[in-house]
Structures are given as structure tokens and as C-alpha cells.
């Protein structure tokens, strides 16, 4: 009898996994409408399938259907309130709603902050939640809870988890706070520590924003010497053209 049940369930489970494989392939191809449609079909037969709910929320999010994504992520938080990533995604979509609807923004900010803080509390290694808190505390006006000191606290937590992320976060904080010397210092430290294209790009964009074209070109040249990406040479030419 037990063997029969196992054989009976096996093709159903395999079919379900095949469906998820297809959905994930659609995500890789950026075919988010099709991913949404397939996930909706899965949920018709398995309405409590937590993986399908998350994928549907993600599909909505990629299409900037924030209200629809919010419904799915709220389900995730209710089904598994101890999952840090669900709180992070919920807070992120709330934040996008706030950005797109200034009338709703004031009422949403508290929930956005609570969600990101909960994600950080539940997962001491959650880098994305800490990045979100750095940006949130820097961008919020003081009257709504913005705080450079709080942003720096989370940047310090990031540095403990990943020196590169910590340095980039501090560079962002000081750039936002209009302290270019410290911003440059930390962006350079990120390059020394990590040396990724992302690190070089942050410093390049900083130099461009500061109207320091020669430094931007030199940084791009260093990046090209290390990574040999042709796009970097195109960026150099673009900056040179803007100088003429």
C-alpha cells in the first residue's frame, strides 16, 4: 500500500517540479507575463504553495504591478512570519508603492521601515535588508525618521558581513551627505578590497556627478586594464565627447 502511494505521488511531484522549472526558465528569459500566467495556473490547484506565491509576487514585481505583488508578499509574511526574505520583499514593494504614490507615501513609510528592520533582525547576514535600511535612513527627512547615524550603523553591520558592501554603503552615505572626500575614500577602498566592475562603476558615477571628468576617465581606464570590457572604452569616449 505504501509503495502504491509513493508511485501515485511521484508523477504529481515531478510534474509540479517541471512546472517550476518552466517558470524559472521564463524568469531567466525575462518573460514575466508568461511566468505570471503559469504561476497563476499552479496556484489554482495549489493555493497555499508558498514557492508559487513567491514566484507570482516576483513576476508582478518585475512588471511593476506593485499592488498585485504586495498581495502575494503579504501572504508569504502571514504564512511564514520568521522568513527574513519575505519581510524584505514585502518592505521593498511597499517602498515602491510609496515612491509612485506621494499621497500614500507618508502612511507607508512606517511599514516599510518595520519590514526591513524585521528582515535584518531575523537574518543577521541579510545584506540586502541592510542596504535597504542604509538608503531608507539617508533618503527620509528627519521628521519621518531619517538619520545619517542610523544609516552608518547599518553600513557598519554591512562591513562586518562584507567589507566591499560596507565601503560602498559608506561611500553612498557620504556622497548623499555631500562629503565628497570621504565618499571618494570609501569608494576607493571598495575597489582595493573587491575590484569588481560594480565598485569601479560607483566611483566613476561619483566622479561624473562631481564634474571630475579626468578622474572618471582614469578610473575607467584602470577598470578596463583589469577587466578588459569593451563597454568601459565606450564610456571613456562618451565622457571625452561631453568634454568637447
Question: Tags for this entry?
Answer:
244 residues; 0% strand; single chain; mainly alpha
Number of DSSP helical runs: 13
Strand content: under 5%
Number of DSSP-assigned strands = 0
Largest sheet geometry: none
Name the helix and strand elements from N-terminus to C-terminus, one letter apiece. HHHHHHHHHHHHH
Mean pLDDT: 91
The CATH topology of the domain at 129-193, please? Serine Threonine Protein Phosphatase 5, Tetratricopeptide repeat
- At CATH's second level, what is the architecture of the domain at 129-193? Alpha Horseshoe
Distance separating the two termini: 81 Å
Query: Which spans of ≥5 residues are poorly predicted at pLDDT below 50?
Result: 1-15
Q: Give the overall shape, derived from the CA principal axes.
A: globular
CATH class of the domain at 129-193: Mainly Alpha
Short description:
The protein has 244 residues and is an all-alpha fold. 83% of the residues lie in helices and 0% in strands.
